[in-house]
Design a protein that fits this description.
By secondary structure, the protein is an alpha/beta fold. It contains twelve helices and 13 strands. It folds into two domains: about 120 residues, no CATH class; about 190 residues, Glycogen Phosphorylase B (Rossmann fold), CATH 3.40.50.
Length: about 325
């Protein structure tokens, strides 16, 4: 859902600049010299096997200039063939972290451009009055796959409960996924809605929170962090990888990793997993709860900073790289 939104925003930015835009699924068969375009951006979200598609459709037969905009959450596993492909076309990462990992394996990296926000949707969500509630609502939006760190969040939530903070509630907007376990506990509420609701509804949910938590071990960018910030909701997250590029102690609450592990979770890469102590996560959540003025101040600063991620400021930079 988030990636589809980014495609929409890139298209909108291109049209704002006067481009005629055609969206094509990268797996759609195209014969050489048919459907030829002047400039092409390929948005790749899987590594490294989808680079084969990027190379095929980046060939001069399809476009005069082609740029691959992609994310990785660690170091891609590449053989000599993939390395040769990487040298054959230009790549832009979605974060400084992603660009560095791509460069490490020989990609021709042009730079990095972050994902973006839709100011129209943000304004709509900000226009919804926030309900007053006695419960302190801590929320998460995302899948339950292991690298999202929900089991560490489960431990942190248990610590919060055991320390006597019965007024803190964790609302997880997620889904059942294979045999991935979902957190359980008296202060945890699972809403199996992830991927099944319009994007605007996700923003409405975030706007209803007091604190957003991103427990991830590995990310390539992490769109929910900037979405929560844009709604004035401070974020608690690890400082590992790209999360440290988006969140800091001025804007939210940061947990420093205690260990970096390179793990194979599939998708042809060794994921950079930044492990942290769940007690540190619990401490930050309690700090936010006990300091409403500090929390509000961070939320306002985060909201102001998030305007730098509006699509009309971000994606023209990507388009100028063509």
């Amino acid at each position: 859902m988030s990636f589809r939104k980014q495609v929409e925003l890139i298209k909108r930015a291109a049209e704002d600049l006067g481009y005629r835009v055609i969206l094509v699924d990268i797996q759609t068969p195209v014969k050489p010299f048919q459907g030829h375009v002047g400039n092409q951006i390929q948005f790749i979200v899987g590594m490294p096997h989808l680079l084969m598609w990027a190379f095929r459709y980046g060939w001069k037969a399809y476009a005069d200039r082609s740029l691959c905009y992609t994310t990785v959450e660690g170091r891609p596993k590449v053989n000599k063939h993939i390395q040769n492909l990487l040298r054959g076309f230009r790549v832009v990462g979605v974060s400084r972290f992603a660009a560095e990992r791509l460069a490490e394996v020989g990609a021709k990296v042009e730079g990095w451009v972050p994902h973006a926000l839709d100011p129209v949707e943000i304004d709509q969500a900000l226009g919804i009055p926030r309900d007053k509630h006695e419960i302190f609502r801590v929320g998460y939006v995302g899948s339950p796959i292991p690298r999202k760190g929900l089991m560490l969040l489960n431990e942190a939530a248990k610590i919060v409960w055991d320390r006597g903070y019965k007024n803190i509630e964790f609302i997880l907007w997620t889904q059942k996924w294979g045999d991935c376990p979902l957190p359980e506990g008296p202060n945890i509420h699972i809403q199996e809605l992830f991927g099944s609701r319009p994007h605007l509804e996700v923003l409405y949910f975030m706007r209803s929170l007091d604190l957003y938590v991103q427990p991830s071990l590995a990310e390539g960018f992490c769109i929910p962090i900037i979405e929560a910030q844009a709604l004035g909701i401070p974020v608690v997250s690890s400082s590992g990888g790209p999360m440290g590029e988006l969140n800091n102690p001025k804007l939210g609450y940061v947990v420093n990793p205690t260990e970096l592990r390179l793990e194979d979770h599939g998708m042809g890469q060794d994921f950079y997993c930044y492990y942290y102590d769940p007690r540190d996560m619990a401490d930050k959540i309690i700090e936010a709860y006990e300091n409403p003025s500090q929390r509000d101040e961070k939320g306002l600063k985060a909201l102001d900073q998030s305007k730098e991620y509006y699509y009309d400021k971000v994606y023209p930079r990507l388009l100028r790289m063509l």
